[in-house]
Amino acid sequence: MEDMFAVREARPSAVEGVIEKIKELLIEQKLTPGDMIPNEISLAESLKVGRGTVREALKILSAYGVVEIKQGHGTFVSSASNKRLFDPQLFQILVQDRDYRSLTQVRQLLEEGIVKLVIEFASEDEFALLDQTMQKFQEELTKEGRSEQHAGSLDLRYHRLLARFSHNSIVENIYTFVIELFTKTINPIHEGVADVHLRLHQAIMARDSEAAVQAVRAHTDIWVAGYRATHRNA
Predict the structure, then answer these.
(1) What's the topology of domain 14-95?
(2) Residue 12: is the preceding peptide bond cis (ω within 30°)?
(3) Residues facing 75 on adjacent strands
(4) What does the alpha-carbon distance between residue 11 and residue 25 come to, in Å, rounded to a whole number?
(5) With bands split at pLDDT 50, 70 and 90, how would you rate the model's confidence at 84?
(6) How confident is the model at residue 29 (pLDDT cuts 50, 70, 90)?
């Protein structure tokens, strides 16, 4: 059986590394509510850290409400909402039932607000970086032997830049977290994706908020259609 906690080398910040690994497994749903976390010895060996590091990370995650430490029984992924939340109260999404309709609505609302903030507050240098990233994305989508993985990474980079250039750290933090939940379902090669991304980008570059919001809604419709098609054929 594959050791899903294993890493190739120790991470610079050991405690944060353990927390990030558990977060990654929650995002990928390799860990789900109610699952038992391996004991300290097993985790320490897999993650190449000391037992004290694992213990500290689990205490932090327990304080966040992400895991429950049951004396004499072990440590489990939380199966219910817990009022002990971490900044910015987002990890709880990972231990709730994954409702993509609700998440899609959240994503759309955030993106509609983000594009308006970018249009209002982004600098010319930031606009230039957005333009450069979109050009690379479009080039990848149109070339022979295009890579879905590379196109997907450029797609995500563009959206993360939008969040950063909103110049609102709270919005950026929430949106970046939410967009990570869609990583596994992003299909930049799906029909219509290139066109709607270009529409969105052109509206932003023209500082046209109304057109940008319409493009966000069109992008959401295409993503939902692609998601449904994928799961219908699964």
Answers:
(1) Arc Repressor Mutant, subunit A (1.10.10)
(2) no
(3) 37, 69
(4) 16
(5) very low
(6) confident
